[in-house]
Amino acid sequence: MFEPLTFFRYWTCKEAYLKVDGTRLAGLSAPSLSLTGDIEVDHRPECTIAALDVGAGHVTAPALPARPAPARAFDWLPRQASIGREVSERWSEMSDPKAELEAFIQTTEFSCLGARAALKKGSIVHGHYPTLGDPESARAHYRDMLGYARDIRPTLSDKSFRTFVSTFEEPGGILHEEEYERLMWRHLQLMHDIDSRTYGLDEDFTSDPNEPNFGFHVGGHSFFAIGMHPGSSRASRRFSRPAIAFNSMLQFMLLGDKFFSMQDAIRKRETTNNGSVNPSFTTYEYQMPSRHFSGRMTEEDWKCPFTSRHEPSSVKYTSDMVQRPAG
Q: pTM value?
C-alpha cells in the first residue's frame, strides 16, 4: 500500500504520460509505471517523467517524449525530481547558476547597488556547491571562502565593491523561510567550526551573534551574509535557488559616509520596486546584524541558532562604529 503522497505522485505521473500519448484519462489503466521512473508501454511513445514536489502538499509531473522539442526551464520549477533522473539531468544541463545569479542582479526587484557595481567591475566571486547545510559542501565552501578572505583584504578601498556569492543545488523546491534560515545557520556553523580551530577574530568585530558588531568570520576576516532563496518573502532576495552572499565588513567601514548614502539609495529602490524597506532593518537596524542574515522578519524573542567558538571579543560596540553623519 502506497503512502498518500506516493500515490499522488504515481497518479500524477501516469496522467502526465497519458496526456503526452493523447489518450487522456480514457487510457488510465494501460501504462504501468514503477516508482524508480521506468515505464512499461505497449505501442505507446516512450517518455521520461518526473514527479516534482512544489510545496504545501502539491505535486506536478512533466512528461517528456523520447525526442522532446526544445524546452525552457522556468526558475520557479523545483529541481528535485523523485521520479525520472533523466529529466532532472536534462534540466541541470540547461541550468547555469552563475548566469542565473548575474541575471538576477540585473532585475528590477534586486535592490543592492553594491552587487550591481561588483557585477559591472567583474569582482563577484562565485562558488557552487551541492547542498546547503551539508558537512561536505560546507568544507568545500570554507576552502573557497578562506582563499577569498586572504585575497580580498589588500584590495579593499572606499571604491571597491567585491562579494563572494555561494549557490547551492539542493535543497530544490521552495523552502519556508524558517527552514531556509535553519539550513543557512547550520551551514555557517559548520564553516565556523572549521575556521575557529585555526583563525581568530577580526579586529573590530565579534563572532557572538547576539552582539551589534557581529560578523561571520573566515580566516580572521569578518563578513555580513545575505541569504537568498526561492521562498523569500522579499522579492529582492527571491533567487531561483538557495544562495548566500558574503560582503566584507571592512569594506563597509572603508566606505565611510558613502555607506549611508548607498544605504539610502538602496532603501529607496527597495521601496519603489518591492513596496517597502525590509522590516527587519527598519525594526532592528544595527542592534543585531545576525537578525538580517536570512532576510526574514525575525520574532522579538528570536535566538540566533549559531554558537561562537571564539574567545569573547575585547572590543565592545560603540556608537561611532556605525553612526550616520550629522545632517
A: 0.67
